[in-house]
Structure to design on (184 residues):
């Protein structure tokens, strides 16, 4: 059965972080809808790049979603965290042991919700204080149980590969890295 990973877009999202995950997962034949957290189909990122979404939040049946991805961007992260319906789903996924991934500023959301206690995690350097209870790692991406975190835009490819590894295993991630000529 094909995996389904929903990537959530809020005004002010970090374009490369969000779109790199979508691109790499789609290359790996993962159903990866881009989802606006509002009723608007077009969402503008932190650098003025507007992207047309596949769906709006109300369209998503979370029982059909295998993983949630939260891109960073300072404003984008604030907007994601302010979306109560999305936060309810993040809470439910973590409680059920379903994977949740966040990069850049967005791992702070997981820290604020208490999900990083006793876990290894990473984030954009100025957000490390928000990784409450985590062992803060200074590497591009970290997988700890059902949580995947990434540091920032420069770590977008290793983060996306870590998301793929969480879904399909290390072999699939290594094959994809070779396919896209990514050299760590």
């Amino acid at each position: 059965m094909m995996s389904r990973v929903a990537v959530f877009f809020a005004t002010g999202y970090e374009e490369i972080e969000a779109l790199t995950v979508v691109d790499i997962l789609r290359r790996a034949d993962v159903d990866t809808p881009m989802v606006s957290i509002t009723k608007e189909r077009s969402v503008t990122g932190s650098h003025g790049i507007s992207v047309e979404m596949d769906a709006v939040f109300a369209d998503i049946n979370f029982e059909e979603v295998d993983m949630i991805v939260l891109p960073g961007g300072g404003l984008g992260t604030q907007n994601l965290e302010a979306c109560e319906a999305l936060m309810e789903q993040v809470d439910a996924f973590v409680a059920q042991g379903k994977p949740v991934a966040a990069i850049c500023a967005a791992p702070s959301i997981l820290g604020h919700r208490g999900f990083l206690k006793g876990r290894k995690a990473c984030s954009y350097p100025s957000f490390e204080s928000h990784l409450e209870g985590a062992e803060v790692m200074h590497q591009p991406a970290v997988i700890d149980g059902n949580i995947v975190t990434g540091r920032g835009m420069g770590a977008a490819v290793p983060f996306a590969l870590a998301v793929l590894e969480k879904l399909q295993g290390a072999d699939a991630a290594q094959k994809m890295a070779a396919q896209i000529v990514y050299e760590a």
Notes: The chain has a mean pLDDT of 97. The first strand starts at residue 5 and ends at 9. The radius of gyration is 15 Å.
